[in-house]
From TrEMBL:
GO terms for biological process: mitochondrial electron transport, ubiquinol to cytochrome c. Component of the ubiquinol-cytochrome c oxidoreductase, a multisubunit transmembrane complex that is part of the mitochondrial electron transport chain which drives oxidative phosphorylation. The complex plays an important role in the uptake of multiple carbon sources present in different host niches. GO terms for cellular component: mitochondrial inner membrane; respiratory chain complex III. It comes from Lineolata rhizophorae. Keywords: Electron transport, Membrane, Mitochondrion, Mitochondrion inner membrane, Respiratory chain, Transmembrane, Transmembrane helix, Transport. It is found in: Mitochondrion inner membrane. It is a single-pass membrane protein. Its main location: mitochondrion. This is Cytochrome b-c1 complex subunit 8. It comes from the Eukaryota. Belongs to the UQCRQ/QCR8 family. The keyword Transmembrane applies. Component of the ubiquinol-cytochrome c oxidoreductase (cytochrome b-c1 complex, complex III, CIII), a multisubunit enzyme composed of 3 respiratory subunits cytochrome b, cytochrome c1 and Rieske protein, 2 core protein subunits, and additional low-molecular weight protein subunits. The complex exists as an obligatory dimer and forms supercomplexes (SCs) in the inner mitochondrial membrane with cytochrome c oxidase (complex IV, CIV).
Length: 94
């Protein structure tokens, strides 16, 4: 029973491709994803978020810092140019 028969045509071991279809045998299986779909979800969320943040922080923070500094400089310059001293420097005295 362990190997191919010595006479006739060998069609493969039971259940392998090439064997004749078995009748009356039903097999049910459940995917591992359906058994525990949220297994390790919170652990992965914390560590994946940290990993992604660490990898992307240098693409996000320097431009944000530069934009903040430019806006601060522009606001201060605008306030100065609209002050009495700024108007006197620009020569817009009326």
């Amino acid at each position: 029973m362990g190997g191919p028969p010595t006479t006739g045509r060998y069609m493969g071991w039971w259940g392998h491709i090439g064997s004749m279809p078995q009748k009356g045998v039903v097999t049910y299986a459940l995917s591992p994803n359906r058994q525990r779909p949220t297994a390790g979800m919170m652990h992965a969320a914390v560590f994946n978020t940290f990993r992604r943040f660490r990898q992307q922080v240098l693409f996000f923070v320097p431009p944000l810092f530069v934009a903040y500094e430019v806006m601060t400089w522009a606001s201060e310059r605008n306030e100065y140019l609209n002050s009495k001293a700024g108007r006197a420097e620009a020569g817009d005295e009326e």
